[in-house]
Amino acid sequence: MTGPAKSPAAPLVAGQVPRLYLDANILLPEYLRAIFLDIADAGLVRVHWGKQVLAEVRRNLVGSKFGKSPESIDKLLADMARAFPDALVLGSEKLEPMFHGKTDPKDAHVAAGALKLSQSESGGQDVVLVTSNIRHLPASAFEGTPVRPVRPSTLLKELLAANTEVVHVLARMLVRFKAPPVGKEDLLAILDASNCRGFATALGKAWGFDVDA
């Protein structure tokens, strides 16, 4: 990559509205997807993704593992597009060669999308690449850029620490889940089982539960 080196993107701080580029593995699990979209709808973050990310989401959700109908997933993606009309990042394909040998080849489009997003405003903009696959999208691949890859649990803990409104947003989110109903303790258990134990612990404490660290 060319240009002067920059320090890694700073951790989130209160008062900022972070720009997130979401990998497909964040949008595939129902509750994790709901968490990120709801905190974005509340204006606490700005969410973004690319065409290939959405294609991967659709392919997997209608596949044998999730078994959703094509019609239901097309509606989901259409609803996401309507709710977040500025989320789609275009024109990142030309940046993919910059990540050859630095990321897993199948994930170069994710890295390129996050980098393109960081270039979309004058002067560059810090971007958090949220992914459960840090092994294939390591921080070293983004050296000298404003992109910081983080796991969802780490990012959500930072958001919770920076803005306590996250607590109330997620409590309201649970009201939507009726078949089956999902309570606060249920969500904490789901997060704990989904490699988000750190965030589950922090959220449980914020909700007033006696949660072991």
Give a written overview of the molecule.
This protein is α/β, with parallel strands linked by helices. The chain contains nine helices and five strands. The chain has helices at residues 24-27, 30-41, 51-61, 70-83, 108-118, 152-162, 165-173, 184-192, 197-206, and strands spanning 19-22, 46-50, 88-89, 127-130, 147-150. Strands 3-2-1-4-5 form a five-stranded parallel β-sheet, with helices on both faces. Mean pLDDT is 91; it is low at 1-8.
Shape: globular
Derived structural class: alpha/beta
Provide mean pLDDT, rounded: 91
Biggest β-sheet: strands ordered side by side in the sheet: 3-2-1-4-5
Terminal CA distance: 40 Å
Poorly predicted runs are: 1-8
Q: Oligomeric state of the chains?
A: single chain
Order of helices and strands: EHHEHHEHEEHHHH
User: Helix amount, in percent?
Assistant: 40-55%
SS element count, helices? 9
Biggest sheet statistics: 5 strands, parallel
Top keywords for this entry?
213 residues; alpha/beta; five-stranded parallel β-sheet; 9 helices; 5 strands; 9% strand; disordered N terminus
Summarize the structure.
The chain has 213 residues and is α/β, with parallel strands linked by helices.
What is the strand and helix layout of this fold?
Blueprint: E1 19-22, H1 24-27, H2 30-41, E2 46-50, H3 51-61, H4 70-83, E3 88-89, H5 108-118, E4 127-130, E5 147-150, H6 152-162, H7 165-173, H8 184-192, H9 197-206
Parallel strand pairs: 1-2, 1-4, 2-3, 4-5
Helix pairs in contact: 2-7, 6-9, 8-9
